[in-house]
Amino acid sequence: MSSQNVMVIVLVLVGAALGAGYIIGISRSDPISVPEGGDISESSTEVLEEEKGEEELLPARPFISRETVEGLYYGLSYEAAAEKFGFSSDESETEYEQGVQGYTSPYVIHWHVWNNEEGSRVRLGFIDNKMDRKQFIASDGISEIPESPHTDVKNYGKILGMEGERNRR
Fold first, then answer.
1. Nearest alpha carbon to residue 112 among 150, 139, 84, 71
2. Which domain holds residue 21?
3. Are 116 and 64 within 8 A, CB to CB?
4. Of 27, 66, 108, 126, which is most buried with the most CB atoms under 10 A?
């Protein structure tokens, strides 16, 4: 027997085994019950009503307040923030920053956004999975939390109390 004949026989046996497994699997599945008269429109409506009832049982999403966001510590991980809020973010995006030559290296900020039902949003920026930026944006679109001082690169000297250090040397 040639190797081609052996290969054909093996493939036929494998196909037969797979086909038999498929047929056995179909016969074990639960049959669909059709009401008397063959009208399935009523039973499908009942299923939709049952699913709708299950959705109504879901708890309402917790509201994330401005005070909650202000209380978050810088350096918090995304997972810890999502756990504190009670659900994962609704949106995410990345932003590349080149940094300031001579001061900072390039970095990527991973922004995660949580939307409140009344229209306000919480926006947290993570660098290397550590929270570096936080914003609470009210439903009117105005950010109510000022940017953190360490993100104000142009005024590092003022922030750190080193204003005029170069002139003293």
1. 84
2. 1-30
3. yes
4. 126
